Amino acid sequence: MLRSVAKVEDLRQEEIPVDATTLIYLGKADAFGEAVRAVRTFVASPAVWREAVDDAPERYIGDVRKIRAAEQEGAVKQVALGDRDRALASTIRANHRLGQGESEALALAHRRKYAIVDEGRATRVARALGLIPYSTLFLPVLAYDVGELDKAEAKALFRRLAVVAGARAEVVVAIEEYLEEKGK
């Protein structure tokens, strides 16, 4: 059974740092409108923005447009790193062999406690740093838990995200079972 580690209401009040994969998945699934019902604002560091938007291959131009539109609507916020965050990101990257985007996301999360990261190593590093990592695939569950999405909406959003993320069958089954059980 899945369980939420944090108070879901806390996430609704926060600006949550994300990795580039989160922005890409949300863009591909055209899901920013629903995802902000779980998390108020997705925070993108310079490297995350560069990976998801500025350096995206031409074939992803539609997804990039969706990310830029989400920024215009306030769902995504680009932030600069201060000296402390930059130094922490550099340390995380060197000590844990993470990419620049994941390292910056975790450095920003250090103050906030939460991050949305989808790369396995980044998730393990986040936990080791005392942070609470969430997967993009878990956003429908969070929105459902706070009553922002009904069961059908949460399942539909989850399925769109699962397709673009190439989610493993056991993940799909676990999350769908959780949504089913929660509604009983």
Write the layout of secondary structure elements.
Blueprint: H1 8-13, E1 15-17, H2 20-28, H3 32-35, E2 41-44, H4 46-54, H5 61-72, E3 76-78, H6 83-96, H7 100-112, E4 114-116, H8 120-128, E5 132-134, H9 139-145, H10 151-165, H11 169-182
Parallel strand pairs: 1-2, 2-3, 4-5
What this model shows, in words?
The structure is a single chain. The chain has 184 residues and is mainly alpha-helical. It has one domain (8-182): Rossmann fold, CATH 3.40.50. Helix content is 61%, strand content 9%. The chain contains eleven helices and five strands; from the N terminus they run αβααβααβααβαβααα. It has helices at 8-13, 20-28, 32-35, 46-54, 61-72, 83-96, 100-112, 120-128, 139-145, 151-165, 169-182; strands spanning 15-17, 41-44, 76-78, 114-116, 132-134. A three-stranded parallel sheet has the order 1-2-3. Helix 8 (120-128) links the parallel strand 4 and strand 5 (132-134). It is globular and about 45 Å long. The two termini are 14 Å apart. The relative contact order is 0.17.
Give helix and strand order, one letter per element, not per position: HEHHEHHEHHEHEHHH
> Percent range for helical residues?
55-70%
Low-confidence stretches: 1-6
Sheet with most strands: strand arrangement: 1-2-3
The profile of the biggest β sheet is: 3 strands, parallel
Q: Given the C-alpha coordinates, what overall shape results?
A: globular
Annotation, overall tally of beta strands: 5
Number of helices: 11
Per CATH, what is the topology? Rossmann fold
Classified in CATH, the superfamily is: 5'-nuclease
Content of β-strand: 5-15%
